[in-house]
Amino acid sequence: MAEINEKRSPMKWFREARAEFKKVTWPTRQQTFRNTSIVLLVLVLAGAAIWGLDQILSFLFRLLLGV
Prior knowledge:
There is one protein chain. By secondary structure, the protein is mainly α. It has helices spanning about 1-5, 10-25, 30-65. The radius of gyration is 26 Å and the shape is elongated.
């Protein structure tokens, strides 16, 4: 029974979590900046592509309906 309580102990969980965090290889500031820049660039490009496709399809739809 003591073994079950030990497994559910929040303190044990925090100790284990802290040990795992020490094993993590954190990115450098430069890597974080570069990765964030790439994500933002891809978001802008994807947004522009979706907007452009929407404009083209809207134009074709209006042309088809004669509006």
